[in-house]
Write a structure and sequence with these properties.
The protein is mainly alpha-helical. Helices cover 44% and strands 7% of the residues. The strands form 2 sheets. Strands 3-5-4 form a 3-stranded antiparallel sheet. The longest helix is centred in the first third of the chain and has 40 residues.
Length: 222
């Protein structure tokens, strides 16, 4: 009986010591080590890839933002502010939780099939809006020139990037609204176009937030 109690107590003490050691190693030392290495090697990424402007954090290069006019009375969705480069649509998770403003509460795709009437209507309306918004006197936009990312949301609904094609399609409208030469806005897009990762992974892309920050500086005479 005494041996049984002693063995049980020894096993319990061994289990408790193991729990304490693993708690310290896995719950304290390992997180501190990973955090320290991350802060030392790539602090920008470890802190959320924050983007600053005028000394303030204005967003993350990993999360898209909307550039809309103030919501008017009776409107369900704000109209885009056409002085800025516009991101991809952010269609979110569906009817009752549609992520229309890149809010971080929600993230996801619509999961509609290619033959979905709702998706077709949505894309058709989005294409018409892109053509209308970006056509300027003497330079109408052809529906055939509208890239796919201009009318469809990403899998997360929070894509921070657009294709160089979509950025270039917006150049004349942005230049006109900001009273800037088209050539300078074109150069701005070129400067903010990132190539494929390692030269072959993914597609060329333009980060909308970084581009709009540079646009603001250019419009303000920077």
């Amino acid at each position: 009986m005494n041996n049984s109690v002693a063995n049980t107590a020894r096993l319990l003490w061994a289990g408790l010591r193991t729990l304490l050691v693993l708690t310290v190693v896995c719950g304290v030392l390992y997180p501190l080590a990973v955090t320290g290495i991350a802060q030392g090697v790539f602090p920008d990424r470890a802190n959320g890839s924050e983007i600053t402007a005028n000394g303030e954090v204005v967003g993350s290069e990993l999360i898209g933002q909307r550039y809309d006019l103030p919501l008017k009375k009776g409107q369900e969705t704000a109209a885009p502010d056409l002085k800025w480069f516009q991101p991809r649509p952010s269609n979110g998770l569906g009817t009752n939780s549609v992520n229309t403003r890149y809010e971080l509460i929600l993230s996801g795709a619509t999961n509609r099939s290619g033959d979905s009437e709702e998706l077709i209507d949505q894309v058709t309306a989005a294409k018409a809006a892109v053509v209308k918004d970006n056509s300027v006197p003497g330079h109408p936009v052809s529906p055939a020139d509208v890239p796919a990312d201009a009318v469809t949301s990403s899998g997360s609904g929070l894509d921070p990037d657009i294709s160089p094609q979509y950025a270039r399609l917006q150049v004349r409208r942005v230049a006109e609204r900001n009273h800037l030469p088209v050539e300078r806005v074109e150069k701005l897009v070129e400067q903010h176009t990132d190539g494929r990762i390692l030269g072959f992974v993914g597609e060329p892309r333009v980060n909308v937030l970084r581009l709009n920050i540079a646009l603001e500086q250019l419009a303000n005479g920077g």
